[in-house]
Write a structure and sequence with these properties.
Layout: E1 4-13, E2 25-34, H1 48-55, E3 58-63, E4 66-71, H2 79-85, H3 101-106, H4 113-130, H5 146-155, H6 167-181, H7 204-207
Antiparallel strand pairs: 1-2, 3-4
Length: 209
């Protein structure tokens, strides 16, 4: 097999907060090496940080019609440490793509990160109140299993009960919901326009409606 090497740059949020009009990002660098068994067969990686320190690295990010050019800070790099960790005999396992053909037939689903974050925050808010109440005493807050039972009730319904037979139905439902979320008219349940907090989640008052 011929030597092949590629780089994948993945942009991920640095934290969950939104500070004004800017978002802090991190860029994860993932090398994909194929065709060799030792790092010496991929000379570009023997002194990766040293090459960056000498030549620098510029990245251009595109988001719709907006673009930004970033210059990587090379002052924090430690080429000597890299060379002490990686050498010509360092073993390399060639990258192989996972075969998901069979699983794809069952349905590959994704979910709204905003919905998930909003759900988690609402559960934490409710738990901070319900779990702080004393176990003793009468009333609707009391649970025979104590705090463990209270927490179980809070999480009831959050679990995903997956079954291959309903993959198409779930996928179609998620697709319809995704299309509805893009339509401002569908946000009537949140009072017209969805209101978001600093982390991009729905406001607690809107979620509780």
């Amino acid at each position: 097999m011929a030597i092949e090497q590629a780089l994948i740059f993945t942009v991920v949020p640095r934290d969950g907060a939104v500070h004004g009009d800017t978002v802090e990002l991190s860029i994860v660098v993932s090398p994909r090496l194929r065709g060799g068994r030792h790092l010496g067969e991929f000379p570009d990686w023997l002194d990766w940080t040293g090459r960056l320190a000498e030549q620098g690295l510029r990245l251009k990010l595109l988001a719709g019609s907006h673009s930004s050019e970033l210059v990587v800070n090379t002052e924090i790099l430690r080429p000597k440490l890299w060379r002490s960790l990686f050498h010509e005999d360092t073993p390399v396992r060639s990258h192989r793509f996972d075969a998901h053909a069979e699983r794809a037939r069952e349905g590959v689903l994704s979910h709204s990160m905003r919905d998930g974050l909003s759900l988690l925050k609402s559960v934490y808010r409710r738990a901070s109140v319900d779990l702080a109440l004393p176990d003793a005493g009468a009333g609707p807050r009391k649970h025979d299993l104590g705090n463990r039972g209270v927490l179980a009730d809070l999480l009831d319904g959050v679990g995903v009960h997956w079954a291959a037979k309903n993959a198409r139905e779930l996928r179609a439902s998620n697709r319809r919901r995704s299309l509805q979320e893009r339509d401002p008219a569908s946000l009537a349940a949140f009072g017209g326009a969805a209101r978001l907090d600093a982390e991009g989640a729905y406001l607690a008052a809107d979620v509780s409606r």
